Amino acid sequence: MAIELLAEMPSLLKERHIVHFGDGWPDTFKNKFFRVARPQQIEYTANYIITADATFDLDFDKPSGGGVDATYKSLVPVSSGSLYEILIGFKGLPVVYPRYNNSYFGKLEVANVVPDTSDSRLKYLGFYSQLQSPYSSPRLREYTVDEQQPPQLRLFNNMPNDERLVIRFIVNRCKVEKVDERNLNAAEKERARELQYHTVFQW
Amino acid sequence: MRYDDIKPRPFRVVCASGDTSVLTVPTDMLGYINDLEIDTRTLSGKTSTVTLDVRDTYTPQGGTSTTTVRKTVGVLAGDVIDVDLRAPLHVIGAVAIRSSYSGPVVSMSVLLE
To answer: What predicted TM-score, i.e. pTM, was given to this entire model?
Structure first.
């Protein structure tokens, strides 16, 4: 999924909700409908102290040895029957740039209008902070499935002092089951939540 | 009650003289010292200047760092003085206070949020 900023804290997927995966997702999910069979909500908090004017990259993938480490947060499922719906909120002054495949996601169309933490004109482009998605009521949402390109976050401390950033992930771990499109009526298809992969935003 | 309605609660911590680690900010929280008080009843009848170093030790990505904020306050023995902080001191790690005299009891109020 491509990370999305919502107007308010969204409700989580519940049992029997239907989702539709658009283009770009791994073949198991691409252009298919799935029904949520069993959702489980898991709180997960990560914290970072970032020195002044420094960045730190974290990745939703798992580390090679399993578990988690400072960089790899294991926020992509390993079962092909799972979907993670992840709300992300922040506490602290550093800002966060979403990235995929080591490229910034929040960029404009003119060449070189891409976030750049070393450029005073471009450092405030395509980022999120605690103002947009506070720790207490996260408004950023991401979806992950097995074998997708893991989302990444670049943390940037633009302050003159070392700062802590606390990141709250609310992981709605959903067991999902494929639904034959022919068994869904028009209303169910209409209500299905559309999940768009980040690559569809590259046009 | 919504999560937003929960207000930070000040934690009052006291250290004796010298270099004492008095508080470690939990890793999922930010700390603000909003009140610092020095009790000089043990300074045996003299007027003096006491220097307080508020040290914050933490581990950023890639090393260990310490920041120190120094506050100097004139006291008359027996006083209980409110140290003027101007603005709350932001702390993120293990907070210790060192006073230039042994004896004074320093207490601080810390908001954790």
So the answer is: 0.89
**Segment B21-80, tens digit of pLDDT:** 678 899 999 999 888 888 877 666 666 788 888 889 999 987 778 888 888 888 777 788
Cβ-defined contact of B58 to A70 (cutoff 8 Å) = no
Nearest to B75 by CA among B99, B59, B93: B99
B94, B28 Cβ separation under 8 angstroms: no
Note the pLDDT tens digit of each residue in A60-99: 999 998 899 999 999 999 999 999 999 999 999 999 999 9
Backbone dihedral angles phi then psi of residue B5, each to the nearest 5 degrees: -80, -10
Specify the length of chain B in residues.
113
Interchain contact, B4 vs A137, CB within 8 Å: yes
A134: nearest CA partner in chain B? B4
What ipTM was assigned to the predicted interfaces of this complex?
0.79
Q: If you measure CA to CA, which chain B residue comes closest to A51?
A: B60
Q: How far is A94 from chain B (nearest CA, A)?
A: 13
CA B16 to chain A, closest CA, distance in angstroms equals 28
Name the β-bridge partners of A151. A100
Q: Are B3 and A162 within 8 A, CB to CB?
A: no
* Cβ distance of A54 and B61 shorter than 8 Å: yes
Domains of chain B listed by start with CATH number: 16-108 (2.60.290)
Of the candidates A118, A121, A113, the one whose C-alpha atom is nearest the C-alpha of residue A156 is A118
Looking at the complex, report in whole angstroms how far the Cα of residue A137 sits from the nearest Cα belonging to chain B. 8
